[in-house]
Amino acid sequence: MSFADSFLNLRVAVEHGPKIIEGMGVTVVLAGCVIATGLAAGLGLAVLRALGVRPLNWLIIFVVDLFRAVPPLVVIVLLYFGLPAAGMALNGFVAAWLALSLVLMAFAEEIFWAGITTLPKGQWEASRALGLRFAPTFFLVVLPQAVRIVIPPLVNRTIAITKGTALASVVAVPEILGAAQAGVSFSFNPTPLTLAALAYLALFLPVVVLGRWVERRWHVR
Amino acid sequence: MFADAFLNTEILREAWPILLDGLGRTALLSALVVPLGLLGGLILALLSLTRRRWLRWGVAVWVDVFRALPPLVLLVVVYAGLPFAGVEVSAWQAVATGFFLNTGAYYGEILRAGIASVPKGQMEAARSLGLSRPHALALVVLPQAVRNVLPDLVSNTLEVVKLTSLAAVVALPELLFQARQAQSVTYNATPIVAAAVIYFLLLWPFVRMLSRLENRQLASRR
After folding, report:
1. What is the pLDDT of residue A55?
2. How far is A136 from chain B (nearest CA, A)?
3. Among B65, B84, B177, which would you mutate to test the A interface (most chain A Cβ atoms within 10 Å of its Cβ)?
4. Is residue A221 predicted with pLDDT exceeding 50?
5. Which whole number is the average pLDDT over B47-73?
């Protein structure tokens, strides 16, 4: 059998291509959910941390450090295989979504917080001197500038964690990689894996190039 | 009830030797893939310094392609795909290959940015003092480049160590794999919780250090 017959077999590609395309849909939906909840939760924690309540901040720092230190796959496995022991069975999609959201939340909080703290104190003082209270100062003056500063690291971190959607294949989610692995065991041919690699490139190559562009454009990192 | 399922000391005592065995392999794996990735990254960064445009382009495409492919996809393609080409790969070989490609691309991009951040005058001054180009690069430019991107290098290394957990997918008995084994034998989640705690305790100091490094870097850029 030639190389092309095994890695780019037209018959297998036609048969399993549609499943991979469906898998792309699942990957995009999962990624979208993770980005939405992860970034929102990260921003929420950073805002809470700005209130400066000591015990609350310790808790936030602990949670953030926890999900920065533990590998995402471990979190997914824990939620998927562990929670049923507590009588709470999650399906694979929800487990992966929750786990990756928590991880993105942690990294995003850290990045937002870095942006907030590195903003010069004068910004706070000037707005307070103009008569703005804490909330308007924070939301109208500090936060918009902080978010601008941290866009490049935030974009790159979000891309890296979004690629973690492939981990969902471990908990039986039929996203690209999961669909491809099923295809390989059905057809006993590696063509679905080739298609999967191409599908990931189609989705993530533009995103990686975008990340590079954002980095250059914002000049920070 | 909760403690029985998640923090069961009896199960923990039983699973402990297996977990330790897995931890040892995770350490070994990290000691293998971090230098391998650094080596790949250094090669890519040095290649991108060439004056040959096609080679520079080639390196840029290589780096972007392997940054775009999720590491697990690379790992599965190598492990499950190569045997079809008549190349039998062990789990260790598959992990080493996949990580070399993936983390090499990341380290390469970081080191390239580091080298680019060193002013040209440094190279010129070193050359005018009589150092050969390789010497100037190794003794003058690279040390400054590494210092400039140290937080990124540390952060990437932390990510690489965390990524070694992917090896569980190809049945390499590292920490996560052993925890899963113990969990499926005992029908109890304690071993996985224990694995998570072990990862956390081992990597926490690095996370703390990193957060300090990153804040300092961000502050210095304002």
Report:
1. 95
2. 24
3. B84
4. no
5. 93
Residue B161: give the domain boundaries.
2-220
CATH number of domain containing B188? 1.10.3720.10
Per the CB < 8 A criterion, the answer to whether B59 and B48 are in contact is yes
What's the total number of domains in chain B? 1
A218 burial type by CB count under 10 A (0-12 exposed, 13-18 middle, 19+ buried): middle
A15 vs A1: CA distance, rounded Å: 19
Share of chain B above pLDDT 90, in %: 77
- Which whole number is the average pLDDT over B170-186? 92
The closest alpha carbon to A164, from A60, A38, A57, A45, belongs to A38
Would you list the DSSP string of B144-200? HHHHHTHHHHHHHHHHHHHHGGGGGGGT--SHHHHHHHHHHHHT-SHHHHHHHHHHH
The two three-digit tokens of residue B180, written as one number: 């899963």
What is the chain A residue with the closest CA to B202? A69
Closest CA to A195 of A22, A2, A1: A22
Q: What is d(CA A191, CA A174) in angstroms, rounded to the nearest whole number?
A: 17
For the segment A53-103, what is each residue's pLDDT rounded down to a tens digit? 999 999 999 999 999 999 999 999 999 998 887 788 899 999 999 999 999
Query: A158: closest CA among A216, A90, A112?
Result: A112
Chain B residues near residue A199 by CB distance under 8 angstroms:
none
Hey, what are B13's tokens?
Answer: 């005592």
Per-residue CA distances from A110 to A93, A164, A167, B43, B152 (Å): 26, 19, 23, 32, 15
Q: How close A86 comes to chain B (CA, Å)?
A: 7
ipTM for the predicted complex comes to 0.90
* Structural domains of chain A, ranges and CATH numbers in brackets: 3-218 (1.10.3720.10)
In the chain, the amino acid numbered B216 is R
Chain B residues touching residue A6 (CB < 8 angstroms): 84-85
Average pLDDT value for chain A = 90
